[in-house]
């Protein structure tokens, strides 16, 4: 193997992990870091240009379906920001307010876009570049390059974020260990600005610990290397679980039960022990009991303010009820992706407005319907059906190749799908990138069609010798 060939091969194997690490470390906030995120979007766009430029041999099967959804999303975005005759939009809700504002500024445009905040809509669609690049990066690499290093990178990143979160609590602000200015001060947020997103990220990493442990159990021979891997996995698992408990996220506690159950199913599939089902059931019960005690006794759950489950104006229930009025007025065409915060205040009771700023519904499906209308709702429904089909296929497939890794990725995607009912995890670039990579791991085939040579070099073979008798 030439030195250049070895370097290219190693670079290809490490490209996806490096992209994920960079996105997680810099993209843990959905509200700040505009310049860093803009650099990330530019890098993602350049990466997409390169991947599509080298050929489309990797666009097969479910990958093609996902890219079709991405194309439909792009068409939806263009339809929301391209100006159309004002006669087309004059009958839509809140357009009179927008027209009046333009008139007060001395503008009388003859055309107006469907989005009530075109700049926010463009910015929101640019944000899709990062997860799209993450998905295409994994899909375009051969399985040995795209998956083998990711399966270790993901749990190690989860453990690192959990460890940073614990350090943030134990050491406080001296030195300041938080990566974002607007963050959950005093709480273990890790790489993130929001402890809910920290909990979601950690729960996505946990199944990969189970997948590696299943592989380790299946091939266990008590060698030094395997003992070292087992110790690393045990440390990662304990740190991740401690991070979830410490985050104080109610959604994290609720999602811990199904994630643990699915992870134990993964773990039991890697060994031959007859007692593993009983052990797994006991472990699940123990974790649930511990989580229940922790939830009801944790001081972290006190003073959640706008995150409480009461029915006040600033509670999630109150925001959802107010958002129903927004959806009722905008279900046809939507308000424009990214415009919720600017539109919501038009429906607030002025007497109830305080310093707390409502930026999201805390239900991403609901917010998506408000911002994209009927067309976006149809696209979302089709995508969820497609995801469900892929999820069932992964768990019912009898093929042994990389089954545990695919199932771990499916559990991670399920975390996002469920957490989005109570939050907005996908609006954080770090979670979106990890989710996209996990989706790619679910659907990318192990063998691709023949395409441009990827310089895949086999291990060095024994030299051929001629023996003369």
Keywords:
two-stranded antiparallel ribbon; mainly alpha; about 0% strand; disordered C terminus; globular; about 475 residues
Strand content: under 5%
Alpha carbon gap, first and last residue: 32 Å
In spatial order, strands of the major sheet run 1-2
**Which class best fits the helix and strand makeup?**
mainly alpha
Helix and strand element order = HHHEHHEHHHHHHHHHHHHH
Gyration radius, in Å = 24 Å
Task: Write a short abstract of this structure.
By secondary structure, the protein is mainly alpha-helical.
Structure commentary:
The protein is mainly alpha-helical and 469 residues long. Helix content is 64%, strand content 1%. The protein is built from 18 helices and two strands. Strands 1-2 form a two-stranded antiparallel ribbon. α1 runs parallel beside α9, α10 runs parallel beside α12 and α10 (195-218) packs parallel to α18 (429-443). The longest helix has 33 residues, at 364-396. The chain is globular. The two termini are 32 Å apart. The relative contact order is 0.15.
